[in-house]
Each structure stands twice: as structure tokens, then as C-alpha cells.
């Protein structure tokens, strides 16, 4: 591979909290595969124009039910000319194109289970969302775009305070408790076995994004890292080699 793969990601004001939970899946996937890459920053309102310019496929439709909707992560591979959108599709592309570089992200026969795990993990992390809205780390262009989109979807953007915050934080712990029950208690290495996979990238992406937004020295992150016998803090320590 003569040229670096390009990862299109969203910038933030904090160097320790780049990207989003979905783009971290691809950051980890590339690193697990031992593939070098460069990041090109793009604000969310500019993603559609970028995708159309480089030929990235849409990942859904807009609320009108017909207009294509474009999201990141997107990768562009100069070595093959490929442009791929959506984290699972990117993982499959990396496995197919670079099968001998690092472990397989989605080993044969695991795709359905890994995608189901992705959806279940995403659902378990839903209670964390209100804690992200008051962080102020997004650049104005992306922040205003995101607020407008959420309001259009009927989402109430409100940062919990006081007793409401405590109740919401308890929901966060309960969500991670569900994931904890799915994983082996002893001898746990990675979700699918002895090597990291796309499922691990998904789980650690949510944890990494959460730590970046809350702050690694924040009381909330230190609390989360200690839950379930310190599983989440230990997992992030193990995955630090892929950051």
C-alpha cells in the first residue's frame, strides 16, 4: 500500500475528544488491521457535499423519505480507488482488501451476531446522550447543524441537573450493566475470542467517545471506569494501543 487511507472525521475543540462514537469504530478498525491512515476533518454540514464530490454512497434517507442522507465515517483508499461509507461496511472492506494485515474484523459466520451486538450496545448507551449536550466541544458549524437536526426529529436537547442528573446517570450504569452480563466474567479478552474484532471496536468506540466528552479526569468517567469490577477502565487501558 503506497498511499495512506483517508478517514474523514468531525473535528472538535478538544484534542483528546476527536470524532464521534461512529468514527471511533473506524479509527479502531484501521488500527486493529495495522493500517496507517490520515485524518481529514469535515464539519457535519459539509459531509453531504464531500460525499457527493468523492463518490461516497449514502447511508440512509432524510426525513422526507427519499432524499439520500450522508454520514461519516467515510474512508477513501488511494491504493484501490475505493470510497466506503458506514463503519461495518468499512470493516468488511478492510477485511476483504487487506486479509493478511492484522486479524479479521468480521470473521466468517459472525457478521449477523456482530451487527446485532452493535445495535444492542448502541441502545445500551442511549442514556449517556444528555451528558454530551452540555460539553461545548463541538465547533459552532457542527453544533448548530446537530441541534437543528435533533430539533427536527423532536428530540429535546436538555442537560440534566441535580436529582434528574443522578437518575439519568443511574440509567447509564444500568445500560452498561446489560453489556456486562453478555461478557464472560473470567478470562475475558475480546468479544469474539482472543483477538479484537469489529464488535470490540464498537464497544470501545462508545467508551472512548464518552471518556473524551466527559473528560478523563471527570468524576463521571472515573465512576464509569470503576463499574463492574473496573471492567470498562481496564478495557480502555487494553485498547489504548489502538488509539
In whole angstroms, the N-to-C terminal distance is: 21 Å
Number of domains: 2
Helix count equals 9
Q: Which residue ranges are poorly predicted, with pLDDT under 50 across at least 5 consecutive positions?
A: none
Classified by CATH, the class of the largest domain is Mainly Alpha
Identify the CATH architecture of the largest domain. Up-down Bundle
Give structural notes.
The protein is of the alpha+beta class and 243 residues long. The chain has two domains: 5-97, Glutaredoxin, CATH 3.40.30; 110-242, Glutathione S-transferase Yfyf (Class Pi), Chain A, domain 2. It has nine helices and six strands. Strands 2-1-5-6 form a four-stranded mixed β-sheet, with helices on one face. Strand 1 (5-9), helix 1 and strand 2 (37-41) form a beta-alpha-beta unit. The protein starts with a strand and ends with a helix.
Amino acid at each position: 500500500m503506497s498511499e495512506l487511507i483517508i478517514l474523514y472525521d468531525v473535528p472538535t475543540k478538544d484534542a483528546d475528544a476527536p470524532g464521534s462514537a461512529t468514527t471511533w469504530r473506524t479509527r479502531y478498525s484501521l488500527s486493529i488491521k495495522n493500517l496507517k491512515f490520515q485524518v481529514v476533518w469535515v464539519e457535519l454540514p459539509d459531509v453531504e457535499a464531500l460525499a457527493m464530490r468523492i463518490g461516497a454512497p449514502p447511508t440512509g434517507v432524510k426525513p422526507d423519505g427519499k432524499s439520500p442522507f450522508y454520514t461519516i465515517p467515510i474512508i477513501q483508499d488511494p491504493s484501490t480507488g475505493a470510497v466506503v461509507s458506514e463503519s461495518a461496511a468499512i470493516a468488511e472492506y478492510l477485511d476483504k482488501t487487506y486479509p493478511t494485515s492484522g486479524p479479521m474484523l468480521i470473521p466468517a459466520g459472525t457478521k449477523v451476531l456482530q451487527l446485532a451486538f452493535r445495535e444492542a450496545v448502541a441502545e445500551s448507551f442511549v442514556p449517556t446522550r444528555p451528558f454530551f449536550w452540555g460539553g461545548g466541544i463541538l465547533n459552532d458549524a457542527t453544533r448548530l447543524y446537530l441541534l437543528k437536526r435533533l430539533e427536527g426529529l423532536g428530540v429535546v436537547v436538555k442537560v440534566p441537573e441535580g436529582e434528574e442528573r443522578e437518575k439519568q446517570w443511574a440509567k447509564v450504569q444500568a445500560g452498561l450493566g446489560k453489556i456486562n452480563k453478555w461478557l464472560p466474567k473470567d478470562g475475558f479478552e475480546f468479544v469474539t475470542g482472543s483477538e479484537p474484532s469489529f464488535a470490540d471496536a464498537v464497544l470501545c468506540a462508545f467508551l472512548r467517545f464518552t471518556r473524551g466528552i466527559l473528560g478523563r479526569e471527570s468524576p463521571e468517567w472515573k465512576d464509569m471506569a470503576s463499574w463492574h469490577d473496573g471492567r470498562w477502565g481496564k478495557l480502555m487501558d487494553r485498547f489504548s494501543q489502538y488509539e
